[in-house]
Amino acid sequence: MNYQEEDISKRQMDSNKIEKEKRDHPELKRLGFVRIYAIKTLVCVSNLYEYAKHNSGSLKSAVGTVENAVAAVVGPVYENFKGVPDDLLVFLDAKVPQLCEVAQMAAPTMAHWSEKYNKTVEDLSAKGYTFFSVFPYIPIDGLAKAYKKIEAEKGPAYAAEEERHED
Question: Under a CB-based contact definition with an 8 Å cutoff, are residues 96 and 30 in contact?
């Protein structure tokens, strides 16, 4: 195979990888932020776990034993269900316009739990747990302003109306 044929072959393989990635993780029109926050949460929890494991002192061997046992049990279950959250997210992304009423009911709940989260991070940071000072705050006021602005400009049924025009 000459240089040009190798280059073409490599581009085809790269293209195939991209297509596979698109099939495995389809683009989300409306709920892409959920995937991003899930990844960021996973990274935070993973870092917290590694920090705790590193500072477990004399319990390190016990932690390692438990970790291996959990991995042996959870590993096969994970393999069976690893695509389910992404499939569910894709399904919900397609149904977002039909969930406008649910979103209006969920907004106060989200605000409540976001305030609780922000307060917990603030309290733990103030008590000297410096690890929590790197946790991001949820911009509750900004989210509320953005939601009210969109609702005022477009109306609460905007998302549902827009979806009907796209079909």
Answer: yes
DSSP assignment of 56-108, as one string?
-GGGHHHHHHHHHHHHHHHHHHHHHHTTHHHHHHHHHHHHGGGGHHHHHHHHH
What is the C-alpha separation between 39 and 85, in angstroms, rounded? 12
* 20 token code pair: 């596979």
Residue type, 41: T
Which tens digit of pLDDT belongs to each residue from 83-137?
888 888 888 888 777 676 666 777 778 888 889 999 999 999 999 988 888 888 8
Domain boundaries, the chain: 27-166
Put simply, whether the predicted model's pTM sits higher than 0.90 gets the answer no
Length of the chain: 167
In angstroms, the CA 93 to CA 88 distance is 8
Burial level of 114, CB count in 10 A (0-12/13-18/19+)?
middle
Tokens (6 digits) for 143 = 């989210």
